[in-house]
Write a structure and sequence with these properties.
Layout: H1 2-12, E1 15-18, E2 30-34, E3 37-38, H2 39-50, E4 54-57, H3 58-61, E5 65-66, E6 69-73, H4 75-83, E7 88-93, E8 96-101, H5 109-116, E9 137-141, H6 142-148, H7 153-158, E10 201-205, E11 230-236, H8 241-244, E12 251-257, E13 263-272, E14 278-290, E15 293-304, E16 307-308, E17 336-339, E18 342-345, E19 361-362, E20 375-377, E21 379-392, E22 397-413, E23 422-424, E24 441-444, H9 448-451, E25 455-473, E26 476-497, H10 499-507, H11 526-532, E27 533-558, E28 561-583, E29 590-592, E30 601-615, E31 626-638, E32 642-656, E33 659-670, E34 683-691, E35 699-707, E36 715-726, E37 734-750, H12 763-766, E38 770-771, H13 776-783, E39 788-789, E40 801-804, E41 808-824, E42 827-828, E43 831-848, E44 856-857, E45 868-878, E46 881-890, E47 893-895, E48 902-904, E49 907-919, E50 925-933, E51 945-946, E52 951-952, E53 965-973
Parallel strand pairs: 4-8, 10-12, 34-39, 35-40
Antiparallel strand pairs: 1-4, 2-6, 3-5, 7-8, 9-11, 11-12, 13-14, 13-53, 14-15, 15-21, 16-20, 17-18, 17-24, 18-19, 21-22, 22-25, 23-24, 25-26, 26-27, 27-28, 28-29, 28-30, 30-31, 31-32, 32-33, 33-36, 34-35, 36-37, 37-41, 38-40, 41-43, 42-43, 43-44, 43-45, 45-46, 46-49, 47-48, 49-50, 50-53, 51-52
């Protein structure tokens, strides 16, 4: 159809048609040096440089000029720049771009000239009209988003090979606390580039920092951004604190929204994970543009059902069927009595009112699978709204504003909190003396049958508003702007046993109201159960105010081109507050306003960035087509952690046309979160026992430190990259990028408390956190602290070692690896083929867990990234029909925490989408798509994944439990 349409156009009006197959959606950028000239000539130059096919009627181009484009950027950005202010828009049709006139009043000459000079800012630089020199940028455009079959921003970014799914994500909450997973009270979703931590990846929304989520404000919650409003996702996989400030250690993810959308688009999606989990999404976006501005409005609703653990065989604490161990809880119903460490199981099928000691089952335990009745993923229901607009005034003034607001409700059947033995006094009417001691007895009992399962329920609300006033003065642009963001999280944990009221009910002498722990969970008075029912309510709020003043433009002319400068100053105020109401440990609820949290943080910064063209194509220097240098530096002053200065340098050398080498070097840092600055006011010092192969009997008395260490400092990193970009003119359908990186990350804030019971078992890994023999002075200090707990009654002289499980400046990482993306897009059978492979190969992650500890290579271990992560793509499209597929692979690794260490298999899944467009791509049309994620329903590989309180059989850091997800979507343009 496209060829017939082109032929008809050629016979009537004449047509500019330059056939250059498009590059893969996720490949890198290209240098553009297109001078101001007639639009037809500019488009020819653009097609040669980009490999894009551009089609336009000749009469449509007559009398139109382009302001040109210079610098390194994506093909989409360059085309937008070329046609800005011309009254034309570009529509994608079967991989090509067709230009047509906007149905708008033609701008006046002065306004058209102003629009034509407008340039785009690419992630990784503050300079308009250029791309970051020396740094790798990956772009996921709108077409790639639609072809993925995924329905949320977090799902899209989690497919990036450079992303490691560990940390604050909805699937990891409740599965353990490694990599900061426990800081995610609201079941949000983060991104964790290179596995360096969610707090070390800076997330921007159209260049603006959103308010943060999680305990202490430790990550940007991607679940609050509607995917239907996203135009593209730009990912800078390089340290960028010199450009953006704190948190940009591992890289930057910039969500570019559909601010220039015109028309109307409705999208409906319904999906199901083989009936085990449902997903429904509906969205509407409207856009209108006129001569002096534009306005866009978008709304999205998504309802994702829960995924129950009972639907997945590996979500169990009894892993014997997989070759593992039985880690079921000893807190069952009926319960189990313990006398001097000897268990006596309470028989089933009786109410505990006539139970005698002879009925008990000695040396037997009533086990309970605590995972069986829980959820893997919560039910999530999200409403999100986005609106943005721009008004252009005379005199080169322009005003822009935007608002992003979202509300997400969640509910999950959660893993119950760690249980504790209950002491039944002899006065209890149902007391049974198991061994004739005549004293109180200890009972392990589960209340889930009477109280119901523990439920986490809550909501998250977030909003980010921005406003910018811009003035164009010659070829310089000055802008003053501000932003405000707030994210609040409220979570209620229901059906939690109240330990104080349980003790009171056990001491009750009245058999009608006393608590009975000796039955099968059906004999207690409902009023008694209501009396012991407790709950927890936690509310957090993160506020961010910011203001900025910036300028950019040409500074001076060199033989190779213009030196361009961007400079500015910024101010940011952040404040985190938390409030809790706990009804689980006292007779009446305990309210806590967390007075130990630090007050507002004030950040003042100034930055400058230079883009210097050293050698140009017209200078005829041997072996150098083009050589560019970038210099950047930023100074930031934090009111709580001091001042930091971070530089960055980038270099790009195009040796041959279409082949370029690049390199970058810079320093980055991350300031501690608010909770990380609490200090020892929140701490626990516990004298207990853990396994120790070197101790008599295999166990050792130790002192374990938990909580926050004092004087936590900012994290700092030095990183450098070297890479190759290629887009050979002889083979225009081929394009790719290859990057080697190295990061030296110091003073990392973290904890290994999840694995403290294994510190002495794996001294080779955790030796830096062990002090043995312990200092008598340190033992005396901790034994005298109010937060010291000594349930075993140990004396200081009994302690063999001190295990440090506190959150503190813990580790140093040296990580190196290779990222790559190669795409090939030839024509085949009158259609267009999309073939490509993107991947990340981590060579080493040398971790020093503490100062002076030996460096251990942890890549390919549990709780660390795998060595390989790959995502391949293959597709074909023609005349509105498209079939696309992806293959995803995570390489195998080693579970070093099992004894002995166990190998874990790799995981490979396949995704497929079939789509058909009915109608014109440039006008009204209907697009139907059938998508299958993990079409072969591959289960995650088995992992003996044990924590301090539970176990299960897969690793949510490297796989997901959803299984095959089928969905049908309809997109209507009208």
């Amino acid at each position: 159809m496209k060829r017939l349409w082109m032929a008809a156009l050629l016979t009537t009006t004449g047509c500019l048609a330059i056939a250059m197959p498009d590059a893969a959606a996720q490949t890198g950028e290209t240098d553009y040096d297109i001078a101001e000239q007639e639009l037809a000539d500019a488009l020819r130059a653009y097609a040669r440089a980009s490999g894009r096919e551009v089609i336009a009627a000749a009469q449509l181009l007559e009398g139109r000029n382009s302001a040109g484009v210079q610098g390194r950027m994506s093909a989409d950005a360059a085309l937008d720049r070329l046609i800005a202010g011309t009254g034309l828009i570009a529509e994608r049709v079967d991989g090509a771009f067709i230009l047509r006139a906007q149905k708008l009043p033609r701008p006046r000459p002065s306004e058209a000239n102003a629009q034509a000079k407008e340039a785009i800012i690419i992630t990784g630089t503050r300079i308009r009209g250029t791309g970051p020199v020396g740094s790798p940028v990956t772009t996921i455009d709108r077409a790639a988003i639609e072809q993925s079959g995924l329905t949320s921003v977090q799902q899209i970014v989690q497919t990036l090979p450079q992303n490691f799914n560990a940390g604050p994500n909805e699937a990891t909450l409740g599965a353990g606390t490694r990599n900061g997973a426990g800081a995610n009270g609201g079941y949000g979703s983060s991104i964790n580039l290179k596995g360096l931590g969610a707090s070390s990846t800076l997330v921007l929304i159209d260049g603006t920092r959103p308010a943060l989520g999680g305990l202490g404000g430790v990550f940007a919650d991607l679940s609050m951004v509607p995917l239907s409003a996203v135009e593209r996702i730009e990912v800078l996989t390089d340290g960028a604190s010199a450009i953006y400030g704190a948190d940009a250690v591992a890289g930057v993810v910039n969500l570019r929204l559909r601010n220039a959308f015109r028309g109307a688009e409705t999208m409906l999606t319904a999906g199901s994970a083989d009936g085990d989990m449902t997903n429904r999404m509906a969205s509407q976006i409207l856009g209108h543009q006129w001569a002096q501005g534009h306005l866009v409005f978008a709304y999205q609703y998504e309802d994702r059902g829960r995924l129950a653990a009972a639907k997945r065989a590996y979500m169990t604490e009894d892993l014997r069927r997989f070759g593992g161990t039985d880690s079921r809880s000893t807190y069952g119903v009926p319960g189990t009595l313990y006398v001097d460490g000897r268990p006596y199981a309470i028989p089933a099928g009786q109410d505990g009112r006539q139970l005698s000691a002879s009925d008990l089952l000695p040396d037997r335990v009533n086990y309970h699978d605590a995972r069986a009745a829980t959820d893997i993923l919560p039910h999530q229901r999200t409403h999100s709204l986005y609106t943005a607009g721009e008004i252009r005034f005379g005199g080169g003034f322009a005003f822009r504003a935007s608002l992003l607001a979202a509300q997400r409700h969640f509910e999950k059947i959660a893993l119950a909190e760690s249980s504790r033995p209950l002491t039944v006094p002899v006065t209890n009417p149902f007391y049974v003396d198991a061994a004739g001691t005549g004293g109180p007895v200890s009972v392990r009992y589960n209340f889930a049958k009477e109280l119901g399962p523990e439920i986490d329920r809550g909501r998250v609300r977030g909003a980010t508003a921005t406003a910018t006033l811009e003035r164009e003065i010659g070829r310089w642009r000055l802008a003053i702007g501000g932003a405000y963001g707030r994210q609040t999280e409220r979570r209620i944990d229901l059906n939690v046993p109240n330990r104080a009221r349980i003790a009171e009910a056990l001491a009750d002498r009245d058999p009608a109201t006393a608590l009975n722990l000796f039955g099968d969970g059906s004999a207690n008075n409902p009023a008694t159960i209501a009396f012991i029912r407790g709950s927890r309510i936690a509310t957090t709020r993160f506020d961010s105010h910011s203001a900025s003043l910036r300028a950019d433009g040409p500074l001076l002319a060199l033989p190779a081109g213009e030196v361009r400068l961007a400079a500015g100053a910024e101010y940011r105020r952040e404040h985190y507050r938390a409030h809790s109401l706990s009804d689980v440990s006292a007779l009446t609820p305990i309210e806590n306003f967390n007075p130990e949290l630090p007050g507002p943080r004030h950040v003042r910064s100034a930055y400058a960035e230079l883009n210097i063209p050293l050698i140009g194509r017209d200078m005829a220097v041997p072996a150098i087509q083009r050589l560019d240098l970038s210099l950047a530096a930023r100074i930031e002053d934090y009111s709580d952690v001091g001042r930091t200065t971070n530089p960055k340098i980038g270099l790009r050398w195009e040796a041959l046309e279409g082949v370029a080498l690049r390199a970058s070097y810079g320093r980055s840092f991350r300031a501690p979160s608010f909770e990380e600055l609490i200090g020892p006011a929140v701490s626990l010092y516990l004298a207990t026992q853990v396994a120790d192969p070197a101790a008599p009997g295999g166990r050792a008395n130790i002192l374990a430190l938990f909580g926050y260490a004092p004087d936590i400092r900012p994290e700092r990193a030095t990183s450098w990259t070297a890479g190759l970009d290629f887009a050979p003119r002889a083979l225009p359908a081929l394009r790719g990028a290859l990057t080697y990186y190295h990061v030296d990350y110091r003073d990392r804030i973290g904890t290994a408390n999840e694995d403290f019971a294994n510190f002495l078992v794996h001294r080779d890994i955790f030796g830096g956190l062990v002090e043995e023999p312990p200092s008598p002075e340190r033992l005396a200090f901790y034994f005298g602290e109010p937060s010291f707990s000594n349930p075993l009654g140990l004396a200081p002289g009994d302690i063999r070692a001190i295990l440090d499980g506190r959150i503190r400046n813990l580790a140093r990482l040296r990580q190196s690896g290779v990222d790559f993306d190669v795409g090939f897009t030839p024509e085949l059978a009158n259609g267009r083929v999309e073939l490509g492979l993107a991947g990340s190969h981590i060579l080493r992650i040398d971790r020093e867990l503490a100062a002076g500890a030996p460096a251990v290579n942890i890549v390919g271990m549990l709780a660390s990234p795998s060595k390989w992560r790959l995502r391949g793509r293959l597709g074909w499209s023609r005349d509105g029909f498209a079939i696309s597929s992806h293959v995803n692979h995570v390489s195998g690794y080693r579970n070093q925490l099992a004894t002995p260490a166990q190998p874990v298999e790799g995981w490979t899944t396949f995704d497929v989408q079939i789509a058909q467009r009915i109608g014109s791509a440039s006008g009204r049309h209907l697009r139907l798509a059938l998508s299958a994620i993990n079409i072969f329903d591959a289960d995650p590989p088995y992992v003996s994944n044990r924590s301090n309180i539970s176990a299960f059989g897969y690793d949510p850091d490297k796989a997901n439990a959803i299984g095959r997800l089928l969905s049908l979507s309809a997109t209507i343009r009208w």
